[in-house]
Specification:
Elements lengths: L3 H17 L5 H7 L5 H13 L3 E3 L7 E3 L9 E2 L5 E2 L11 E3 L5 E3 L2 E10 L4 E2 L6 E5 L9 E7 L13 E6 L8 E6 L3 E10 L2 E5 L8 E3 L4 E11 L3
Parallel strand pairs: 7-10
Antiparallel strand pairs: 1-2, 3-4, 5-6, 7-9, 8-13, 10-11, 11-16, 12-13, 12-16, 13-14, 14-15
Helix pairs in contact: 1-3, 2-3
Length: 233
């Protein structure tokens, strides 16, 4: 299957060879496909060659031979004729887009920001959705995700600073050593590293200025596990 740009270039070369007997120049291809640089054309030609649609003839300038044409359209078209290919990122709204040279890459994913989380003294339970942000899909794992703004400095030795936005995979279980959003006594939310100590749960800071707090298992509810972080400088 070809991307939209790959098919456009293949058909452009095919039509030009039919009309004049000579393949178009790289500048003509770049202009026809509305690309910013010829490097994108080079990548498209390489992709077409690897897929067996064209062949570059050695020792001859602008020498491209069409070996075959696609039997059917190799991409789906949406509104306005723009091509796209659907993709699913589990637990999140996901799309894919095409880069300038026709490569299919994941689009950013929108997730809700659920207020602030304490990396220090616990604050009130997680708020309702305040806004949404777009994050790269590489920060996400399977499942549902949400974001929280960090308040406090108790996790600085784990690289989490006040003002950071953390990405959390929603869930009520975690492994010992995971950094979690924990709800204490169902009213205080905090960001800490979870440790299991026998029948007890320890919520451990990453800052020696803060003490580790230990609770019975019925007092701590895990709300999610840290999977990513965004920081604006």
């Amino acid at each position: 299957m070809l991307t939209r740009k790959q098919k456009e270039l293949l058909m452009f070369i095919h039509e030009r060879v039919k009309e004049s007997g000579v393949p178009p120049s790289f500048d003509e291809m770049k202009e026809a496909l509305d690309l910013k640089s010829k490097s994108g054309i080079h990548r498209l030609i390489t992709a077409l060659e690897e897929r067996g649609f064209i062949r570059r003839l050695p020792h001859r300038a602008r020498a491209l031979e069409i070996l075959k044409l696609p039997e059917s359209v190799g991409y789906a078209t949406g509104s306005g004729g723009r091509g796209f290919s659907p993709s699913v990122i589990e637990g999140s709204l996901g799309r894919v887009r095409e880069s300038d040279d026709g490569e299919v890459v994941p689009a950013n994913v929108e997730i809700p920001v659920m207020g602030q989380i304490a990396a220090g003294v616990p604050i009130e339970a997680i708020q309702h959705r305040t806004r949404s942000i777009e994050v790269p899909p590489e920060l996400l794992t399977k499942g549902e995700h949400f974001a929280l703004e960090v308040k406090g400095d108790s996790m600085i030795e784990a690289g989490i600073l006040e003002g950071d936005t953390i990405i959390v995979r929603r869930g009520d279980t975690a492994n010992t050593g995971d950094i979690v959003v924990a709800l204490v006594d169902r009213e205080e939310a905090t960001l800490k590293r979870l440790r299991r100590r026998g029948d007890s749960i320890a919520l451990e800071a990453a800052n020696p200025a803060y003490e580790t707090r230990i609770f019975g298992p019925d007092r701590v509810d895990v709300q999610g596990t840290l999977v990513g972080l965004l920081r604006v400088y």
